[in-house]
Amino acid sequence: METTAKLHGVRLSAQKGRLMADQIRGLPVDRALNVLQFSPQKSARIIRKVLESAIANAEHNEGADVDELKVRRILVERGTFLRRFRASAKGRASRIMKPTCHVFVTVGD
Fold this sequence. Notes:
By secondary structure, the protein is of the alpha+beta class. Helix content is about 35%, strand content about 40%.
């Protein structure tokens, strides 16, 4: 039995999110939450919330035992860019690209 949780449009680059996702992939959920809690990165806080949501979904919807759950799959995909413009010299404008990403977490026993 597998249960998922999704988060779309997070203000985080996908590359930075994948660094944290690689650390918890395949771990039991209690160890994964422990790793995420003591990591100082912004991505750790975001992924922790999605993982907690997936655990709550598994417990409430499927009646799963929380102690036996593992992180089966975690994906951090690139989302759209927020495009902003900044004034530049000689009346021009330079682009500021603010990346977003989508986080998908699947837990199962």
